[in-house]
Amino acid sequence: MRFGPPIGPVERRLLERLEDGPVHFTLIDPEKSPGARAADVAEGAAAAGSDAILLGGSTGITRELMGEAARAIRGRVGIPTIIFPEGPGSLAPEADALLFMSLLNSRDLDLVVRAHARAAPVVRRMGLEAIPMGYLVIAPGMRVGEVGQVDPVPRDEPATAAGYALAAEMLGMRLVYLEAGSGAPSPVPTETVRAVREALAVPLIVGGGIRSGADARPLLEAGANILVTGTIAEEDGLGERYRSVVREVVHARRR
Ligand code: 1GP
Asked: pTM above 0.90?
């Protein structure tokens, strides 16, 4: 019998893409942008150069909302649609993949591993590609910090973040996500990104509070491999601020 990590097509494609440099993910909330509206945003995101759609981001996303948005997006754009779940109730087989994530610094064991034990058989039945990911909240953490009962990593403790991230990698997680919280006044500090990048072998995702190309550039220079933008995609209808972030990512790929 042969064993090995069951890497699926979405993760494989992402890893191939990362060989050329950083990539960009657009976060769409299927509650704020349901069905066809999510597909409109996704179409604009793909045209702007974003590499994948993350679906998720608020509380109360049902399987129906998730499924409708994923189906609408898949019918219209070629980039993958990946669920960024708030819990087992928001899973839907219409998506291409799922970030199967442990909220590493939560005090709530459900969010670290117990909900996963309930969700895993459902994920398997749905045939969803699960990409194992360590999700680490850095201060201020915003709403996910509160809802997730998180002890956020202080902004002046890059070594603490690097410890968590390396532990995630050693536990077999194949992505690490540093999250400042959606709408955070400023993104994850560059020193934290740099320390985590230096510690890790797996790709590093950074999100929360990225509002412009000027925000994006130092994060990319510090070694972020994937940048996520949500708020400015929703607020501006993929306007100039959003485009400037995607441009920085594309530009970094050419460097
Ligand atoms: C939230 O990191 C993402 O989970 C995106 O944050 O909404 O601030 O872009 P923003």
From this structure: yes
Number of domains in the chain: 1
Contact 140 CB / ligand 1 (< 6 Å): no
Helix, strand, coil percentages in the chain from 3-state DSSP, rounded to 5: 45, 20, 35
Mutate to test the pocket of ligand 1, among 182, 206, 226, 238 (most ligand atoms within 8 A of CB): 182
Q: Report yes or no on 16 lying in a domain.
A: no
Q: Which amino acid is at 111?
A: L
Q: Is 230 in the pocket of ligand 1 (CB under 6 A)?
A: yes
CA–CA distance, 189 with 67 (Å, rounded to integer): 35
Q: In degrees rounded to 5, what are phi and psi of residue 29?
A: -95, 110
Q: What is the pLDDT of residues 42-94, one digit of tens each?
A: 999 999 999 999 999 778 899 999 999 999 999 999 999 999 998 888 999 99
Asked whether residue 32 is assigned to any structural domain, the reply reads yes
CATH number of the CATH domain containing 72: 3.20.20.390
- In this structure, the residue with its CA closest to atom 1 of ligand 1 is 182
| Cα 1 to averaged position of ligand 1 atoms, centre (Å) | 42
Statement: residue 133 has pLDDT above 80: yes
Helices (H) and strands (E) in the chain, counts: 11, 8
Q: What is the mean predicted confidence (pLDDT) over 225-244?
A: 94
Residue numbers of the domain that contains 132: 21-254
Identify whether 1 is part of a domain.
Answer: no
Q: Residue 10 domain-assigned?
A: no
